[in-house]
Specification:
single chain, mainly alpha, disordered N terminus, endoplasmic reticulum, Tyr_Pase-like_PTPLA, fatty acid metabolism
Length: 265
């Protein structure tokens, strides 16, 4: 009797596990499971990076108020580097399809930010005390606080408040020009120091038979920001969203679509 009861229990457990396995490995349930994992990951990512940029803004404003713009970079250096470098994951997100943003738009934006963060601010202390650092950091941090909190809410709740949507697609009207102006100004200020130091430049002869001039590469980057030049037309062909005037028009188009869509809903 006990043997029969034990065998019956084993059979019931086996049926239960078989049913669970069939459910787990069915295409529909697996897709649902992966969708949940995706939303949890993106929610955590957006809110963690949001916290990083909030810290950057707090330290920047606090230092600006207490000791002036000369000390802003020193106060925000570590959180700025961490928050901005974390954006590299967004390229990966686009590549694997976690988000719909095209890599052609994401890559140049993140690349230019990383160039400023590591190639200019970190590498050349001579520009770290300039007032443009404060305007750059504040423009970046406000932009990213709005953006990451917007997507954090959308991933967590499936929607964002209408005022948040308006901020997401309107704040760039002011913050993009101030950010771009600060970027161009800091790159320009760094040029003499780049030329003198020859940092990151590779001279021939060498075993790789290769040369690289960081000074001229920086001038090329700077030319991308200037509207109406041949270099702008060249880079617009490669990546339409990477160039300042074209990017601004692209964002205006995004704003119009997003706000008109919200009105219909």
């Amino acid at each position: 009797l006990y043997i029969n009861a034990f065998t019956s229990d084993l059979s019931a457990i086996n049926i239960l596990f078989s049913s669970f396995a069939c459910y787990l490995y069915s295409p529909l349930s697996m897709a649902s499971f992966l969708s949940i994992i995706r939303r949890v990951y993106l929610t955590l990512y957006n809110w963690i990076v949001f916290a990083g940029w909030a810290q950057v803004l707090y330290f920047a404003v606090k230092t600006l108020k207490e000791t002036g713009h000369e000390n802003v970079y020193e106060a925000v250096e570590k959180p700025l580097q961490l928050a901005q470098t974390a954006a590299v994951l967004e390229i990966f997100h686009g590549l694997v399809g976690l988000v719909r943003s095209p890599v052609s738009a994401t890559l140049p934006q993140i690349g230019s930010r990383l160039f400023l963060t590591w190639g200019i601010l970190y590498s050349f202390p001579e520009v770290q005390s300039h007032f443009l650092v404060a305007s750059l950091v504040i423009s970046w941090s406000i932009t990213e606080i709005i953006r990451y909190s917007f997507f954090g809410l959308k991933e967590a709740l499936g929607f964002a408040p209408s005022w948040h949507l308006w901020l997401r697609y309107s704040s760039f009207l002011v913050l993009y020009p101030t950010g771009i102006t600060s970027e161009v100004g800091l790159i320009y200020l760094a040029l003499p120091h780049i030329k003198t130091s020859e940092m990151y430049s590779v001279r021939m002869p060498n075993t790789l038979n290769f040369s690289f001039d960081f000074f001229f590469a920086t001038i090329l980057v700077l030319a991308i920001y200037v509207p109406g030049t041949d270099s702008v037309d060249f880079f617009y062909i490669i990546s339409p969203q990477s160039v300042h005037p074209h990017m601004y028009r692209y964002m205006l188009g995004q704003r119009k679509r997003a706000l008109s869509k919200s009105k219909k809903e």
